């Protein structure tokens, strides 16, 4: 290979594209109308310029749907030019933020994208992540399992700052724009970094003088990083209109530089040439690419806490589709052709339309995120419908004939991938009076005046199960039979609370509510000392006068103090980046006193309410608005916090269940303050170099200390279900529900509960008053403890914190399934289930998950006593039988039963 930097034999590949954020600084429909204009221009250019090679449609197929909703008459033109290779599509459905969506959402984005590509032509086999806010560590394994060998990305290795300007930095993870990217399982792909951004070939001049200035600079920039003679230039940028004279500009460049070959090209051609000339001295980057070796300001990780309400809704819908509706439907329709494939795909598409990086990250204008809430609601309603249908279908197949005639059977399902312990509430219909029996108002009055008897819960052997009747209700309801008109009635309902211990994964148990006086079981109270102490056989929690917790983990005899401190600071940053005002000091809830009230003290759990008040500034001072309007870069702002103060009242419910060492928290508050951040702090006393967090298909280990080049005073990180600090003797796992940002500060786990800001940020001033998150807020989190041998149990408990049990009432009938049943026999403590579903357009059963550890681990997976076959992430069978009984380190596994 020639010496790097020489011009001889260089070949410049110019790829036309437009990075298309569906919604960002303009609402979706505004961007869509510009998209229509872009594609109309493309179709015209394809017809008029035979030298125009192709256009890269940003790696996402949804653009085709967006265009055709406006101009369906041009579908044949799109198909024609895709099949001719003029329009390059796929492989993804949307360009996601991979850290803020679930493991399965990352896979479904690929599966649905490739399925969409089949309708049109062949996809570009490139892991295309041009603007993702950092890149997940398991991307190499995901791509390899999907038949892709190359990834192209813009962030994560080299710093990119305000208005996407590439920042010069000596601390650069690779000296080349090409590198090997290795995942935690040692899968490796070729990585292509847009070292000078994906606009390095944008708006190429046609006049010779301008072209000379342009190319002298641009080629020099590319040669600083290129490892081969093949130089990639991206002709486009964000929402960039088509350069219609690009082929003329290329002619001019070839005239000016006879020693360089300029061609209008595409990624397929470029990747083929690049692979043939890869040098031996490429560097290898490993795992997550999150700009760890930069100054830390533009990692954009604080998007994990921007508009937390979006993250909470995303968790709602993701868990419903992945962990509830799909497993229930798979069990209900396992040997029938009734699985609702099309309904699931519709719901997934609605959900994934919220997953682009400027959408789920919460870094767009307010109108964008209002529309997102509608999409979440649509996907959720489809998921609820599928869940209800599947529950009823399953109930028909489960034998309840052993229960007494006058009983009211109901079935509880654990659709999680590990055993679940905890309380569940089931509403049981005790009696109904159909409208055909009389006037509705008289029926309502009749049931209202009827005294309900004492009740108890039994299992199928007739053994009483400890339960509590906590509420009754008389109300209107209705059935929608599939074979006749709607059936309205007035019903009497009983809310039953049941305690379940170690309910197996993917299983169900059947119970019945019957008339009878329940046994009065004696128990040791969990709540003591007027609510100031919660204690079971695993932990003892003392609530101090300032609202902090002192906790004894009895299994390790470890004490933890000053738990549950709420911290408030100012935030003069934006939707992307947190910035504490100069001279600001954190305000802590522990500086005041706390009231404690007992909420519940029953057999299965104790619950108390802590009420605290924090006096904090009502906003930033008036200078912040001027700095925002004047486009003062956030690091240079001098705004402080207002002198006007308001009271922020925090109400935190703490629940300790009898059979658990996990504390459950729910904090509510009415946010009427602006420009601030609220976190909860857990000082663990565990001083170690690394911590672990739940990420995409891995429990990732991250260093607690920043790189020497890091300047940002904070070190925000992404999480999904949990973050953990542990040493050789003990550990603390903090679980969350839709709270995706945390920071490790020495021995402290800090979880962001809310960040309130007033502008989008980036390349201009875009006010976002709704990002201040004014109004009632409710956040949920949990804390568990473990010793040296039970860390994985702690992780599963944290994962299950996000997955509720499901239930359905039924009648007495015979069925093919027993009243208590494990649908899948799943044994392997290191295995985390991410999907239990049917394969697309097939009734084959698919079970997917991954190894939580970096070691080989035992695993047994059986369905009706049969071993599955091994598949890849495209759900194609690769091995006929899985009989090794183990999974390798950090491995993503897909099992298939035909």
UniProtKB/TrEMBL annotation:
Pfam families: Alpha-mann_mid, Glyco_hydro38C2, Glyco_hydro_38, Glyco_hydro_38C, Glyco_hydro_38N. It comes from the Bacteria. One of its GO terms (molecular function) is metal ion binding. SUPFAM superfamilies: Families 57/38 glycoside transferase middle domain (SSF88688), Galactose mutarotase-like (SSF74650), Glycoside hydrolase/deacetylase (SSF88713). SMART domains: Alpha-mann_mid. GO terms for biological process: mannose metabolic process; oligosaccharide catabolic process. Keywords: Glycosidase, Hydrolase, Metal-binding. The keyword Metal-binding applies. Residues 303-376 form the Glycoside hydrolase family 38 central domain. InterPro entries: Gal_mutarotase_sf_dom, GH38_beta-1, GH38_C, Glyco_hydro/deAcase_b/a-brl, Glyco_hydro_38_C, Glyco_hydro_38_cen, Glyco_hydro_38_cen_sf, Glyco_hydro_38_N. Belongs to the glycosyl hydrolase 38 family. This is Alpha-mannosidase. The lineage of its organism: Bacteria, Bacillati, Bacillota, Bacilli, Bacillales.
């Amino acid at each position: 290979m020639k010496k790097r930097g020489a011009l001889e034999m260089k070949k410049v590949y110019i790829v036309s594209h437009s990075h298309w954020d569906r919604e960002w600084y303009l609402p979706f429909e505004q961007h869509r109308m510009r998209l229509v204009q872009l594609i109309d221009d493309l179709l015209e250019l394809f017809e008029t310029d035979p030298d125009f090679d192709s256009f890269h449609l940003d790696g996402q197929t949804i653009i085709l749907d967006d265009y055709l909703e406006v101009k369906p008459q041009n579908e044949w033109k799109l198909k024609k030019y895709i099949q001719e290779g003029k329009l390059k599509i796929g492989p993804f459905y949307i360009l996601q933020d991979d850290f803020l969506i679930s493991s399965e959402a990352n896979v479904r984005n690929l599966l649905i994208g490739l399925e969409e590509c089949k309708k049109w032509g062949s996809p570009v086999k490139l892991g295309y992540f041009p603007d993702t806010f950092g890149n997940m560590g398991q991307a190499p394994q995901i791509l390899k399992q999907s038949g892709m060998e190359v990834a192209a990305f813009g962030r994560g290795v080299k710093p990119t700052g305000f208005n996407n300007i590439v920042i010069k930095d000596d601390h650069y993870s690779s000296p080349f724009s090409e590198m090997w990217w290795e995942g935690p399982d040692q899968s490796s792909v070729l990585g292509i970094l847009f070292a000078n951004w994906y606009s390095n070939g944008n708006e190429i001049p046609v006049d010779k003088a301008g072209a000379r200035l342009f190319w002298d600079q641009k080629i020099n920039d590319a040669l600083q990083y290129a490892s081969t003679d093949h130089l990639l230039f991206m002709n486009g940028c964000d929402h960039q209109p088509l350069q219609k004279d690009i082929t003329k500009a290329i002619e001019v460049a070839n005239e000016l530089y006879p020693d360089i070959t300029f061609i209008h090209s595409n990624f397929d051609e470029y990747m083929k040439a690049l692979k043939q000339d890869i040098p031996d001295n490429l560097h290898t980057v490993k795992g997550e690419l999150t700009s760890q070796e930069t100054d830390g300001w533009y990692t954009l990780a604080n998007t994990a806490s921007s508009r937390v309400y979006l993250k909470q809704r995303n968790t709602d819908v993701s868990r419903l589709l992945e962990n509830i509706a799909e497993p229930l439907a798979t069990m209900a329709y396992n040997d029938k052709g009734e699985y609702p494939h099309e309904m699931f795909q519709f719901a997934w598409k609605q959900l994934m339309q919220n997953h682009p990086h400027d959408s789920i990250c919460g870094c767009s204008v307010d109108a964008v995120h209002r529309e997102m809430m509608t999409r979440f609601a649509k996907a959720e309603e489809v998921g609820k419908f599928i869940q209800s249908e599947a529950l009823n279908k399953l109930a028909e197949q489960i034998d309840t004939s052993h229960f007494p005639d006058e009983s009211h059977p109901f079935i509880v399902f654990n659709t999680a991938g590990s055993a679940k312990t905890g309380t569940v509430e089931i509403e049981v219909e005790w009696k109904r009076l159909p409208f055909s029996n009389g006037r509705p108002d008289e029926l309502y009055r009749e049931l209202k005046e009827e005294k309900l008897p004492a009740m108890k819960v039994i299992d199928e052997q007739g053994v009483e199960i400890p339960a509590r009747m906590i509420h009754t209700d008389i109300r209107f309801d209705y059935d929608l039979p599939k074979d006749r008109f709607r059936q309205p009635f007035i019903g009497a309902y009983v809310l039953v609370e049941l305690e379940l211990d170690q309910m197996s994964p993917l299983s169900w148990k059947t119970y019945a509510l019957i008339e009878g006086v329940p046994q009065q079981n004696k128990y040791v109270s969990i709540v003591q000392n007027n609510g100031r102490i919660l204690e079971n056989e695993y932990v003892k929690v003392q609530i101090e006068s300032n609202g902090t917790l002192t906790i004894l983990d009895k299994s390790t005899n470890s004490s933890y103090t000053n738990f549950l401190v709420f911290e408030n600071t100012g935030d003069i940053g934006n939707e992307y980046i947190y910035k504490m005002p100069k001279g600001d000091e954190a305000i802590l809830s522990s500086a005041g006193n706390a009231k404690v009230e007992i909420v519940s003290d029953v057999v299965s759990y104790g619950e108390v309410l802590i009420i605290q008040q924090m006096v904090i500034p009502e906003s930033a001072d008036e200078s912040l608005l001027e700095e925002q309007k004047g486009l003062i870069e956030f690091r240079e702002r001098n705004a402080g916090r207002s002198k006007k103060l308001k009271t922020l009242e925090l109400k935190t419910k703490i629940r300790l269940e009898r059979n658990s060492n996990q504390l459950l928290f729910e904090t509510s508050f009415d946010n009427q303050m602006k420009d601030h951040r609220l976190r909860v702090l857990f000082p663990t006393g565990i001083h170690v170099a690394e911590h672990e967090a739940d990420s995409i298909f891995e429990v990732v280990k991250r260093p607690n200390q920043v790189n020497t080049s890091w300047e940002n005073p904070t070190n925000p990180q992404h999480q999904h279900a949990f973050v953990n600090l542990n040493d050789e003797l003990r550990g603390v796992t903090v679980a969350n529900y839709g709270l995706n940002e945390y920071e490790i500060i020495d021995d402290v786990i800090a979880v962001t509960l809310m960040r309130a800001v007033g502008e989008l940020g980036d390349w201009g001033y875009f006010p976002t008053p709704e990002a201040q998150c004014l109004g009632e807020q409710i956040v949920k989190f949990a804390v568990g403890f473990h010793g040296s041998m039970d860390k994985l149990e702690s992780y599963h408990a944290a994962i299950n914190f996000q997955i509720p049990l499901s239930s359905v009432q039924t009648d007495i009938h015979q069925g093919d399934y027993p009243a208590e049943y494990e649908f899948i026999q799943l044994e392997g403590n290191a295995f985390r289930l991410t999907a239990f579903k049917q394969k697309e357009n097939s009734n084959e059963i698919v079970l997917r998950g991954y190894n939580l550890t970096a070691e080989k681990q035992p695993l047994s997976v059986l369905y009706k006593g049969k071993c599955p076959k091994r598949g890849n992430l495209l759900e194609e069978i690769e091995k006929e039988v899985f009989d090794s009984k183990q999974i390798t380190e950090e491995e993503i596994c897909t099992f298939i039963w035909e």
